[in-house]
Structure formats: structure tokens, C-alpha cells
Amino acid sequence: MLKLYKDWFLDADPNQYILGKLKERTREGKTSWEIDNPTYHPTIAAAVNHVLEAEMRKKVAGGELIDLATAMAFYETCADDLLAEIESIPGNLKKAVTKRER
Q1: What is the reported pLDDT for 21?
Q2: What angle do CA 40, 57, 51 make, to 5 degrees?
Q3: What are the φ and ψ backbone dihedral angles of 44, each rounded to 5 degrees?
Q4: How many helices (H) and strands (E) does the chain have?
Q5: φ and ψ at residue 70, rounded to 5 degrees
Q6: Alpha carbons 39 and 85: distance in angstroms, whole number
Q7: d(CA 19, CA 37)
Q8: CB 47 within 8 Å of CB 17
Q9: Which of 23, 44, 59, 67 is deepest in the core (most CB within 10 A)?
Q10: How does DSSP assign 57-70, residue by residue?
Q11: What is the rounded CA–CA span in Å between residue 77 and residue 15?
């Protein structure tokens, strides 16, 4: 499992990527971290897009983005921050997600 962006974490199984926020769980006296309310994605790009959309939705629903210019600036900042996080991960991950042309 790896930290993707802010409090978003990414895991995988042989068929898909699993995305969500971590939640601490205690079972039979043992504490572990699990992804709470996971979403499932066929590609890393789909998972990244989900994070961008969720972050944007949260800001719009909270009334923090009141016009299109502000919303687009937030989206661009969020996308740039997320891309920087991805590029810092070693290996081929950064080849799978590329910055959109503007």
C-alpha cells in the first residue's frame, strides 16, 4: 500500500487498484490499517482521476468554490500536486500517469 495524495492510499490486487482513505481497525486485540470505503479501478490513471474528482466535489459541496475560475485554479493546483506526488514514487508509476495538456 502506498500513499497517493494527502490522505488517499492506493493498494492493488492481481485484478485492480484499490483506492481509499485508511481507517484503523482492531480485531481480536490486533490493530491494523485498512482502506475504508474502497473504490476499485482498472488503471492507475483511473484511480488518480477519482482522487481529483473527489477533491473537487468536496470543495464544491463545501461552498469553497463559487465560480468557474476558482474551481479551475483549484483543479489545476490539485492535479499538479498529485502529479508531483506520483513523480516522487520510484519505478515506472510516473510513466502510467501523464500531465494533461492545457
Answers
A1: 93
A2: 35
A3: -65, -40
A4: 3, 4
A5: -65, -40
A6: 20
A7: 9
A8: yes
A9: 44
A10: HHHHHTT---SHHH
A11: 31
How much is the pLDDT for 101? 41
- Residue 101 is given by DSSP the state P
3-state SS class at 98? coil
Give first-to-last CA distance, the chain, whole Å: 31
**What's the one-letter identity of residue 96?**
A
C-alpha cell at 4: 497517493
- What cell was used for 25? 481497525
Chunked into runs of 10 residues, the chain (102 residues) has average pLDDT values of 88 94 88 90 91 91 90 89 75 49 41
Report pLDDT for 17. Answer: 93
Residue 86 burial (CB count, 10 A): 19
**Burial of 4 per CB tally in 10 Å (0-12, 13-18, 19+):** buried
